[in-house]
Specification:
Blueprint: E1 10-15, E2 20-25, E3 30-34, H1 45-49, H2 51-55, E4 58-60, E5 63-65, E6 71-72, H3 74-78, H4 84-93
Antiparallel strand pairs: 1-2, 2-3, 4-5, 5-6
Length: 94
């Protein structure tokens, strides 16, 4: 695995269509990210099944978060890393 660049934090998040979000990072970079691949597991089910819950995202300590304790690491989003559930699946297959 290649080393990542500097750590980044989310400064702003604007929900778009479906599970897409326009993220602004603390270094000024803006990216449109489709969060659908990251929304796996029981903690993310409320966001997948209730669009208003998904859109109620907040920024907590520079991390994209929801009121039920779910969050997504900003480095994962910035560096386009695999979601944790996909990495676990790859490890099991190896």
């Amino acid at each position: 695995m290649e080393p990542l660049g500097p750590r980044v934090r989310v400064r702003a998040a604007l929900p778009l269509q479906d599970f897409k979000v326009l993220l602004t990072f603390d270094n000024g970079v803006q990216r449109e990210v489709d969060l659908e691949p990251y929304l796996r597991g029981p903690i993310f089910e409320p966001m997948r099944s209730v669009p208003d819950r998904f859109r109620a995202m907040t920024i907590a300590g520079g991390t994209l978060a929801w009121d039920n304790g779910a969050d997504i690491d900003p480095d994962v989003l910035y560096y386009n890393l695999k979601p944790a559930w996909l990495e676990e699946t790859d490890t099991v297959r190896s």
